[in-house]
Design brief:
- The complex is a heterodimer of chains A (266) and B (534).
- Chain A has one domain: Rossmann fold (3-Layer(aba) Sandwich), CATH 3.40.50.
- In chain A, 29% of the residues lie in helices and 23% in strands.
- Chain A has eight helices and eight strands.
- In chain A, β7 and β8 form a beta hairpin.
- The radius of gyration of chain A is 28 Å and the shape is elongated.
- The termini of chain A are far apart.
- Chain B has four domains: 178 residues, MutS, DNA mismatch repair protein, domain I (3-Layer(aba) Sandwich); 55 residues, Orthogonal Bundle (DNA polymerase, domain 1); 163 residues, DNA polymerase, Y-family, little finger domain (Dna Ligase, domain 1, 2-Layer Sandwich), CATH 3.30.1490; 104 residues, no CATH class.
- Classes of the chains: A alpha/beta (266), B alpha+beta (534).
- Chains A and B meet through α4, α5, β3, α6 and β6 of A and α13, β13, β15, β19 and β22 of B.
- β3 of chain A pairs antiparallel with β13 of chain B.
Chain lengths: 266, 534
């Protein structure tokens, strides 16, 4: 049927009272509309509040912290500060009263350092696998057990044994099912597309106090952060992670806030 | 005072039923259980297909084979029978606090005053008279008991009466459950054949010669005449025929340990077949634990060795669990670590039970981990990684940084309200290298500190490590020129002990990247890297 015949037919139908089919937005907004714009549809996954790591630069980069139900990968070479981020996240979780687990492939955890970072050790389960494969199996068990936060530190290279891509997908899926925070700390990218967010930590710089003949003292480090992947937010972003060797001194209380008795003694 | 009501559970053909419970794969096949050795072995019990082929109790093995060449012959397995009897007793424990474990496959329990199972359908609009109502309730109890015993893997018959004897005879009848109302024991027994009282062989012959066939016929005889002719045994038999049974129920003390085992047909020399049969035994054990709301805290494995000997192991679990896979994995690890050294011809798993942990859920606080799932997970992790590699870390008093302790993971209950996460302290963590990596250090001064004088040597401020190189084969590999070095800091600990620590620590930044903590051991004069700032 040609265009002229079609127009003729349409005109004939209009004369006999047939209403032409509404097109475009009329379907969405007209009476008895059954269709909706995609943005108005209820989302399958409602975004929960992310879990803060307690480190402002990381939390800012990740839009508030580590997302629940996702695999977040921290990638960094030597002394980039990724273990410090893991400990800070564990401290944040355990101080809230949550149970947390650390899968530590190289047995690198120093309980004293963890205590100093604020980790409640009695709420932390520490598993120390020898190989990557064991670490993956342990992580899957811990997620299935219902731990709300599982941190996996694969230690220093070389990483003995390789893991197939499907293994990371399984872990990400397990975290999603249990709505758990899963943090993976690796020396290089491993989890591929299974990761919900990837933060690369690079270009570490070390701060020393004292020069020349005077005693030299390590005071802190700083690394540059690159958000390489984020499924739930902006694709790119950068930041600076600054860490101190010694805790910052507490500010002196102001005069008016000191108890009256102390003020009188002074 | 409540009238006496004694219930009896009987497992027909008990040796065969216990065997089939251990080997469920034999169900439906022509199987006979024999007692004795070689050709002198006699049939004790046989399955229905075997009985249809003419197999009867008392036949020898060659006779049975002649009738049915494909007959599966099994010896009596005392271990399976003991476990089956325990399982039967535990089922009765679920219905009454007073349970007597009698002969093989027979259990009595006190049914007076225990709650009866509810009706599964609406009651009849016309209420039953009182006696009939009680009889109906006891029949329901019987059906519930039979169902529970069948769930435990055994067939069962049920009888209930005012005395043990009447209950035992009632349970032996095929139309189960059988309820004998109170005071009607003699009337119930009267029409039954005398064989139901199981008299001794000589008495049975005498009674047959007298022409007595039923229990009622014996009961009608004068007691004194029977006693004068048959003696004390005859007097007792006459009393039982009249329904008089003065024997009280003898409740047993509840057992705290549960065990399951099996005697094997042939010696096993490899682990996999043993674990295959052991898996079924553990499943039965866990089912029994579950029926009592318990979990296994400690598992003992007893192995009967060929030709003689016994090997006993114990597997302690970090927390009570009912996970068969975990128990089996831990058993495997135990046997792999210390093989028994001889073929295994029998085994027993004994579970030391404990209450499974329960958690109180909070409405507003963080969710607590399920204690059962946590225990199972920890047990699996222990099975995979080793007991020293799973736990909760603990700091240890002292100055040596690589020292640590691991405690059992038992987190305190979460707070009732969720706390706000605290702000991070932003501290640089140290990645401890365990064991420390031995490194070769080049420096400008061999000995910066004069220990005899207790002060730095002249010009020692010039001392600095200049390069690091880990020794061959050490991981992770550490090498490079030192860009910045800070130190030394002295560490001394345990000078009074056999292995004192005396070290000089440095923080070094390498030109190749990496910030390490290294130390020189004064005793051995060797250098080690024991941590990396990360």
């Amino acid at each position: 049927m040609g265009a002229s015949e079609a127009l003729g037919l349409e005109r004939l139908l209009a004369e006999r009272g047939f209403v032409p089919k509404p097109a475009g937005l009329a379907l969405l907004s007209g009476p008895g509309a059954k269709l909706h714009v995609a943005s108005a549809l209820p989302r399958r996954e409602t975004r929960e509040a992310p879990f803060p790591t307690g480190l402002a630069s990381i939390d800012l980069l990740l839009g508030g912290g580590l997302a629940r139900g996702r695999l977040t990968e921290l990638v960094g070479r030597r002394s980039s500060g990724r273990l410090s981020v893991v400990l800070s996240a564990l401290a944040s979780a355990t101080s809230c009263g949550e149970a947390a687990a650390l899968v530590d492939r190289g047995s690198h955890l120093d309980p004293q350092a963890a205590l100093a970072a604020g980790v409640r050790l009695e709420r932390l389960l520490w598993a120390r696998p020898r190989r990557v494969k064991e670490a993956l199996a342990a992580t899957e068990m811990l997620l299935a057990a219902g731990f709300p936060m599982v941190a996996v530190d694969l230690g220093l290279p070389p990483l003995t044994g390789s893991a197939p891509e499907a293994a990371w997908v399984r872990l990400a899926r397990a975290a999603e099912v249990g709505r758990a925070v899963l943090v993976l700390s690796t020396p290089y990218r491993l989890s591929g597309f299974a990761a919900g967010a990837v933060v690369k930590m690079a270009e570490p710089r070390f701060a020393w106090e004292g020069e020349g003949r005077s005693p030299v003292l390590l005071t802190g480090t700083s690394s540059r952060l690159y958000l390489e992947r984020d499924l739930g937010g902006p694709a790119r972003g950068t930041g600076i992670l600054a860490l101190r060797v010694y805790p910052a001194p507490r500010p002196e209380p102001r005069e008016e806030s000191r108890p009256a008795l102390l003020r009188a003694r002074a | 005072m409540l009238p006496a009501r004694i219930a009896c559970i009987v497992v027909p053909l008990f040796p065969l039923a216990a065997r089939l419970r251990s080997e469920p794969g034999l169900a439906g096949a022509a199987v006979a259980v024999f007692e004795g050795n070689g050709n002198a072995a006699r049939v004790v019990a046989a399955t229905r297909p075997a009985r249809r082929a003419g197999i009867q109790a008392g036949q020898t093995l060659p006779q049975a084979r002649a009738l049915l060449p494909d007959l599966l012959a099994r010896g009596r397995d005392r271990e399976s029978e003991r476990a089956a009897q325990e399982a039967l007793t535990e089922v009765a424990d679920g219905f009454s606090p007073r349970v007597e474990s009698a002969d093989e496959g027979v259990v009595y329990f006190d049914a007076a005053g225990i709650p009866m199972p509810p009706l599964s359908v609406a009651p009849h609009p016309d209420p039953l008279p009182k006696g009939e109502r009680e009889k109906d309730a006891e029949a329901r109890l019987g059906r519930a008991v039979i169902a529970a015993v069948e769930k435990a893997g055994l067939p069962a018959r049920f009888g209930i009466a005012a005395s043990k004897l009447a209950a035992r005879v009632a349970a032996g009848l095929p139309d189960s459950p059988t309820v004998v109302p109170e005071g009607e024991e003699a009337r119930f027994l009267a029409p039954l054949p005398l064989a139901r009282l199981a008299p001794v062989m000589e008495l049975a012959d005498t009674l047959e010669r007298w022409g007595l066939r039923s229990i009622g016929e014996l009961a009608k005889l004068p007691e004194g005449e029977v006693a004068s002719r048959l003696g004390e045994l005859g007097r007792e038999l006459h009393a039982t025929a009249r329904g008089v049974d003065p024997r009280p129920l003898e409740p047993r003390l509840p057992s705290f340990d549960l065990s399951e085992g099996m005697e094997l047909e042939w010696p096993l020399v490899s682990l996999e077949p043993f674990l295959f049969v052991g898996n079924a035994a553990l499943e039965r054990l866990v089912r029994r634990l579950e029926s009592q709301g318990l979990a296994c805290r400690r598992l003992e494995v007893g192995l009967k060795l060929d030709p003689e000997g016994y090997d006993a192991r114990a597997v302690t679990l970090p927390a009570p669990t009912r996970d068969v896979k975990t128990l089996l994995t831990l058993t495997r690890l135990e046997l792999e670590a210390r093989p028994p050294g001889s073929p295994v011809v029998g085994f027993t798993f004994t579970a030391h039970p404990d209450r499974a942990r329960q958690a109180q859920l909070a409405l507003f606080g963080p969710a607590a981990l399920s204690p059962d799932r946590l225990a199972t997970t920890i047990a699996r992790l222990v099975a995979m990684l080793g007991v020293e590699r799973v736990g909760s870390p603990r700091a240890v008093d002292g100055h040596v940084p690589e020292r640590f302790a691991v405690a059992d993971y038992s987190p305190p209950p979460p707070p009732l309200e969720r706390r706000a996460p605290r702000t991070g302290r932003g501290l640089l963590a140290i990645r401890v290298l365990r064991p420390p990596v031995e490194v070769t250090v080049e420096d400008r001064h061999p000995e910066p500190f004069d220990f005899a004088q207790g002060r730095l040597r002249e010009g020692s401020r010039a001392f600095r490590p200049t390069s690091l190189q880990s020794t061959n084969g050490s991981e992770p590999e550490i090498s490079g020129a030192v860009r910045v070095a800070a130190g030394p800091w002295n560490l001394e600990e345990g000078w009074w002990s056999a292995a004192p620590a005396s070290r000089d620590y440095w923080d070094v930044e390498l030109a190749t990247g990496g910030l390490y903590r290294i130390y020189r051991d004064r005793a051995s004069e060797k250098w080690y890297a024991d941590g990396m700032y990360d």
